[in-house]
Amino acid sequence: MRGIAIRDELTEEWKQRGVKEHREYSILTAEISKAIFGMTPSEYKDFKLLSNPKDNLRDHMTDLELIFTMLGEASTTEIAKTKDTQGFDENEEVAKEGGKISGDARVALEKKTEVKVSTKDNYKEIPEKKKKSLSKRKK
Fold first, then answer.
1. pTM of the model
2. Enclosing domain of residue 66
């Protein structure tokens, strides 16, 4: 629910700052995603093997993937407010900056844990995997 609220706050901020909906929102979202994960949302869907165009990428993300997405979007919103960005071009730069904050945090976590945040794991499959893992530990 918080992820939806953070996304809504970002898109409302863009709207107030003169960003046109749909195409421009998609471009800015792609910039945030590239800075966080090194992939646009459509590339990420391919990475996760989501072939149905109706699949919402966020529905298939792990907790950490969602958290880093939220951090990138929240950072972008805060920078846009602080810099009082106007129009698409200024907001595109801010999208890259906000995404980089989250991308840097992701890289730091991956270095510390030696585990990649971006995985082909699909949230809808994770609960089943966790059940199997728990049952194996109980044996």
1. 0.86
2. 2-138
